[in-house]
Amino acid sequence: MNQTTKVRPSLWHCLWGVPFLLAGVGFTAYTLIHGIRHLTNSLVQVVVPGEAELNLKRGLTYTVFLEEQSVVNGKVYSTTESIRGLACRVSSIPRGNAVRLKRPGANTTYTVGARSGRSVLEFSIGEDGNYKFACDYGENSHGPEAVVAVGSGIGEGISRLVAECLGAMFAGHGVFLIVLLVVVIKHDHERKRIRQLGQVPI
User: Fold this and answer.
1) Alpha helices, DSSP H only, in 46-148?
2) How far is it, in rounded angstroms, from Cα 110 to Cα 106?
3) Rounded Cα–Cα distance for residues 172 and 166 (Å)
4) Which of 49, 68, 173, 199 has the fewest CB within 10 Å, making it most exposed?
């Protein structure tokens, strides 16, 4: 009767990769939740028709978002009516030099809690300083109240958040697969070696 020999490493050793897999999933979830919660922190909300004074930096591209769902000072805003005719302006303080606004180069959207917005305008400034941001329907027009949010780096922040989540996920899955492959290959080689010795692997 042939002698039986245990194959080592056992396939149960594949479980050593599970903590890395779970760590990758956990870090991905944490990064996603934490990142989404803080994504809109840099945005300044303005109820329009209305205006706000902003401290802006040269070299940054600022995006104006229309928040279709929003909360400002505890009041809920929902843009369900037409805001056709709403125009926004940016001018320096105190000189009043106008800043050119244009359509955004990329469509950016976000949904964070009770807030959801989409990019509608963007602009850059020539020098650091305080600027007046104002939106209205014109002297002879009226429209519903809405909320716009102004800030920079939202698109980059979303891209960075996606990259970090994917990196964490691939890292965790990658280490798990490496552990799995190493254990399976060594287990297979050991089975073959035991058979070559005329023994029965178990």
Assistant:
1) none
2) 13
3) 10
4) 199
pTM summary value: 0.69
- Structure tokens belonging to residue 71: 């909360």
CA distance 66 to 146: 8
DSSP class of 65: E
In angstroms, the CA 52 to CA 130 distance is: 10
- Banded model confidence at residue 140, pLDDT cuts 50, 70, 90: low
By CB neighbour count within 10 A (0-12 exposed, 13-18 middle, 19+ buried), where does 65 fall?
buried
- Burial class from Cβ neighbours inside 10 Å (0-12, 13-18, 19+) for residue 76 reads exposed
Q: With 0-12 CB in 10 A as exposed, 13-18 as middle and 19+ as buried, what is 91?
A: middle
> CA 53 to CA 128: how far, in whole Å?
13
In this structure, how many other beta carbons lie within 10 angstroms of the beta carbon of residue 13? Answer: 16
Torsion angle of C-alpha atoms 155, 161, 162, 167, degrees rounded to 10? 150
Q: 93, 116, 117: which is closest to 104 by C-alpha? A: 117
Coil vs helix vs strand at 42: coil
Window from 59-63, 95-99, 138-142 with minimum mean pLDDT: 138-142
Contact 67, 136 (CB under 8 A): no
In angstroms, the CA 126 to CA 68 distance is 30
